[in-house]
Write the structure tokens for this entry.
Amino acid sequence: MVNSYNHPFRSHNCGELRIDQTGNKVRLSGWIHRKRDHGNLLFIDIRDHYGITQLVIENNGKIFEALEKARPESVITATGSLEKRSPETVNKDIPTGEVELRIEHLNIESHSQELPLQVFGDGDFPEDIRLKYRFIDLRREGVHRNIVLRSKVITSIRQRMINQGFMEIQTPILTATSPEGARDYLVPSRIHPGKFYALPQAPQIFKQMLMVSGFDKYFQIAPCFRDEDARADRSPGEFYQLDLEMSFVTQEDVFNAVEPVLRGVFDEFSGDRMVPEGPFPRIPYNEAIKLYGSDKPDLRNPIKMASATQVFAGSGFKIFAGMIEKDPKVEVWAIPAPGGGSRAFCDRMNAWAQEQGQPGLGYIYFRDGEGVGPLSKNIGIERTDLIRTELALGDGDAIFFVAGVPKTFSSFAAQARMKIGEDLELVNKNEFQFCWIVDYPMYEMNEDSGRYEFSHNPFSMPQGEMEALDNDKPENILAYQYDIVCNGVELSSGAIRNHRPEIMFKAFEIAGYSKSDVEEQFGGLLNAFKYGAPPHGGSAPGIDRIVMLLADEPNIREVIAFPMNQQAEDLLMGAPMEIPKGRYKELHIKSDLPKVVSKVFD
């Protein structure tokens, strides 16, 4: 900023004045953050985007009266001399804490009404109030800091991508519907009656066409639109991702391009939290499910699960043994709990499991060299020692068990693993643990329909290509698909794409699609592939989730400037909104709402 006392609003911002500038005439503009009336003196904290400076004025004259009447968050311009604070009044918590501005002239630029939520302090306010008055909420220190962080993260990502030779290209927002797995947002066309545009769920088709067009490395900070329900880590309506695609690459080439960007950004903005050195671990999907119960494992938790099916098969614990004998799909998983070897902890975990709607958690804990508890007695010393040795447990440790068909209990096992790790303080909160989940199954059987379905991404290249599709059982075919996960949060999915039409037709045929179905639904991409398509692949890490992790926020709405609520409503702007009758006619559409909610205005 140019330090000019002649500027009508400020010679400095509210975060830059220091003790070596005392004696100077300065002018500041900002919001009244808080006021403190000491009788003969009035202290004002003035705040702008950059920081806070203390103002002071004696109890006399019109300026004092005007400031007394001005509510917090009124906007003022104050001019005066910068003075050194007395030692006992220095505020070491702010950079400007050694100085204060003695007010000589004041202009109130804008009065504030009584606030619906306070900016000063750490008050907790209902989300509907925060979102309705988001312009006030964004003035609060924590939220403001998150949005600043977001801007810096995006700038850093963009520069890192450019430095790797990626070219930033914008893809269309008004486009055709796409098979991304969620509902599209549709936009009626005025000049093409009865037809609709769709907002892109992702730039997937366009970025692949860019590869066909000969652009070797593409990226953009892409807006994506999906009509899906909200979660803590997913904003309804819209989100942003680092969308990227590369030509003539293998899966490892994509990893080698993405890892330095993510590692660099997290190193830059993580503060005291660490990113372990070395390549991000590659974990096959099936291994991730068996070890962690999830394809989004939080590796800060060192607990790894293990199979205990053979320990319980034919054992004296009839509940598990009977389940195993009755159904060959049944497995028993063991969740070790280092340091959890007490009856009190085991009972707490059992009660927690019942709160989750489970029948409970079987357990064994160890003391004096022996397993303790009913399960240990039922399966006997030999089997108890076998599982203890396999999991390298000893006195003071415990094991919990879940049983059933894995796909029905794996998510609960994953929850139990994290609950145990957190309650026993095994989870390292001071680091970011990344991993790639690789080797996703190409297909899975829908037991209700008896048909094979794509399990992840229908446009990925099957491992083994046409030979695998022709000769292998569909459930055994793996795909060049991968997710990147950080601290249990999925940042992105990606794949090496299927760029050959004949393989695409065969892949979809296994999932029950005819050639005409594929041509009708995916004709644009197929047509492009017929004219020479390079092998290509990419990924799309989520910007919102990256910032959420770096800001250490549990809810993604805390890092988005103007988020919707969980019902996909914009409370600030009143969207979605009803439209005048004339717009329906103009767009060649009709309203067909239930009468109780139909309220179209003239």
In short: The first strand starts at residue 25 and ends at 37. The mean pLDDT is 93.
